[in-house]
Amino acid sequence: MSSSSSSPRLPEIRKDYVFNRYVIISPARSRRPSDFKSSPNPNPKSPNPNSCPFCSGRESECAPEIFRFPKEPPSSSSSSEWNLRVIENLYPALKRDAEPSGSDPGVADGGGVLPGFGFHDVVIETPEHGVRMSDMSAEGLGQVVEAYRERILQLKRVRSVKYVQVFKNHGVSAGASMAHSHSQIMGLPIIPPTVSIRLDSMKEFYGRTGKCGLCEAWSKDILIDESAHFFSIVPFAASFPFEIWIVPRDHSSFFHDINKEKAVDFGGLLKMMLLKLSKQLNDPPFNFMIHTAPFELPNDHLPYTHWFLQIIPQLGVVGGFEMASGCYINPVFPDDAAKVLSEVNLS
Amino acid sequence: MSSSSSSPRLPEIRKDYVFNRYVIISPARSRRPSDFKSSPNPNPKSPNPNSCPFCSGRESECAPEIFRFPKEPPSSSSSSEWNLRVIENLYPALKRDAEPSGSDPGVADGGGVLPGFGFHDVVIETPEHGVRMSDMSAEGLGQVVEAYRERILQLKRVRSVKYVQVFKNHGVSAGASMAHSHSQIMGLPIIPPTVSIRLDSMKEFYGRTGKCGLCEAWSKDILIDESAHFFSIVPFAASFPFEIWIVPRDHSSFFHDINKEKAVDFGGLLKMMLLKLSKQLNDPPFNFMIHTAPFELPNDHLPYTHWFLQIIPQLGVVGGFEMASGCYINPVFPDDAAKVLSEVNLS
Ligand SMILES: Nc1ncnc2c1ncn2[C@@H]1O[C@H](COP(=O)(O)OP(=O)(O)O[C@H]2O[C@H](CO)[C@@H](O)[C@H](O)[C@H]2O)[C@@H](O)[C@H]1O
Ligand SMILES: Nc1ncnc2c1ncn2[C@@H]1O[C@H](COP(=O)(O)OP(=O)(O)O[C@H]2O[C@H](CO)[C@@H](O)[C@H](O)[C@H]2O)[C@@H](O)[C@H]1O
To answer: So where's the catalytic machinery, residue-wise (chains A, B) (predicted)?
Structure first.
């Protein structure tokens, strides 16, 4: 590590203007950035490949299919010929048949309770059990992105769905209960807390600077890589060591406005980031999540909402300080992490 | 479990008016409330009792002492006669010698960077290695509470310290790196994100209802236990299964206004809650944190700020959905958890 000298850098408190939170960057709490490795952190042990319901050939053991790629007439949708499937979650956190009637089902003010209506789907990213997302081609990842997009557009047609959260858990300590590569899509009747905070914070930044906080996020110091339409950085006020954001170059509020060409371009950069994390940090458990805009975004919010994907490798444990304060202690300076990741040799 | 019949209750989305967040209560995601057990989750293996710097007799292996109970003249403060010690953290996240000069050191707007100034202390709660907090007497816990109070009052005198976060990590998966019973105190030059959100949310609730949200939190349905000056509940919109709040009966903004009698009363209820969690959930890892008010609280905020202690047993893993949305999926209805906990037999 070029930037690690004998004495570590002094700690800093940085403000994240996207999520409106502070982070403490404190290298004294940890090893040198280049020494970070995840402890061997395997995938969930069950189900094994011989009984995994997400494997091709076991479609009947899954909750109902929503669609598959390549598209097939419904008659043949029970076949085992597919690259990707979007299915209902067998143990959904929210129920899709509980849509509230009435004109404004979203207001929990007053009593503080809403019925648990919503959609909870699973994207099976590959028919093969042992294939990780980083093993897939850019086109394969592009297809996953297109599946997200298509499902979001379907959910957009449901009146009560206000926001869609796409996320992936990889590895036990990132929450994964299934080893077979998959991600999840939740259609929510509320705008989640983090999303409201983000929109308010981006608005405040725009009001103060006249600029979109994400358009401004590009900086040589924290840049990892770039593609035709996207760039990847370790954000200036990253809450987690080796946290990565993949950001569209051109200002764009809605993830679901991505087109086929951009989806493949995005897939290529995502694959590269996952490979770099895997190589540098010893196949760490990770989460990724897409941060987009609520469906009913007033037009005057468009200039300061900008979607992006956040990847968080799980390298430590969250303690009481973070849970209490919402302020994370990150032991690795973002520019140090970006330098390490930009230099990972994938050949 | 009386309330668990053959079919689980339907999911609900609940609004937490204290932290301004939604939670999804979704029993279908899990076992019956009474079946919850933490997987055997021991304390950190190192250091062992023969090399633990927090044990009495090894004071010299610790960072400098700030004070101890019982109070002693400085000349004898290197002795091994003590019940409790407050010491500096050997690997502090923030530096106590970096106080910024200038009149308003707290504003990170603009550049988005503040020097990493602050205090990071450790409370060694007992001289004995194997004693857990729940093994200690109400008076012993009262002494821990008084140590928090005394240290907070010291930090209040430092101009740049705006908020003090007290927290405890117990067990590896709650973040503890030291097995010997301890907690931590951080004096911060910022008001952390969760605190700002909480104050705004309590203000909004007060504006709408004319009441303090915590004074209103008492409810028979979610009550666990009560003492002379405090009550303990599973909050109506708990984010975590078996989450507990201990709340002062009388409206009180600042934890550091607690007196000796109340400290022992509080210690007794805290001990009981930790024992109940330990017995019911198999000595789970947990965090607790004190949520109080910033030092420079304008007088008109007093009616709606109300301190409390939050205990979160770590029974599951946080996944991408929670990290992305700030919305937690809690598989146990708060009233079911409260009923289980109220009925735990400690004799
Ligand atoms: N000889 C000595 N003298 C003085 N102090 C000593 C010491 N030896 C060790 N210490 C300090 O004692 C503290 C023990 O704290 P904990 O075990 O509660 O968790 P830790 O702070 O390591 O991290 C957990 O809590 C923090 C804050 O929530 C999270 O950031 C982190 O991820 C999580 O693992 C450490 O902070 C350590 O620096
Ligand atoms: N045969 C089948 N057909 C259809 N679906 C099936 C199925 N068998 C299993 N499933 C579903 O597949 C999903 C797999 O998801 P993950 O492994 O990413 O994590 P999970 O949702 O279990 O929980 C993690 O993510 C959530 C959300 O972040 C956290 O609440 C939680 O604590 C964390 O462990 C599960 O939701 C499961 O219900």
So the answer is: 182 (tele-ump-histidine intermediate)
Element (H, E) at B336: helix B334-342
User: What does DSSP assign to residue A133?
Assistant: G
Helix (H) or strand (E) holding B89: none
Residues of A in contact with B198 (CB under 8 A): none
| Pair of tokens at residue B332 | 């146990």
Is B319 in Cβ contact with A112 (below 8 Å)? no
pLDDT tens, residue by residue, A215-225: 999 999 999 99
Assigned token pair, B264: 């022992």
Dump pLDDT digits (tens) for B238-275: 999 999 999 999 999 999 999 999 999 999 999 999 99
Structural domains of chain A, with CATH = 12-42+194-342 (3.30.428.10), 59-101+112-188 (3.30.428.10)
List CB contacts (< 8 A) between A26 and chain B: 92-94, 116
How many CB atoms are closer than 10 A to CB A221?
Answer: 12
Residue B215 in marked binding region = no
Instruction: Please judge whether A13 and B91 are an interchain contact, meaning their C-beta atoms are less than 8 angstroms apart.
Output: no
pLDDT reported for residue B3: 45
Predicted model pTM: 0.95
Element (H, E) at B313: strand B308-313
Selected residue of B310, B321, B335 to mutate for chain A interface (largest A Cβ count, 10 A):
B321
Active site residues of A: 182
Mind giving me the DSSP string for A85-120? EEEE-SS-SSBTT----SS-TT--TTT-EEE-B-EE
pLDDT at B1 over 70: no
Strand order in the sheet with A113-115: A113-115, B12-16, B21-25, B328-330
Is the C-alpha dihedral spanning A255, A256, A260, A264 positive or negative?
A: positive
| C-alpha distances in Å from residue B137, one per residue of B17, B131, B144, B283 | 34, 11, 11, 18
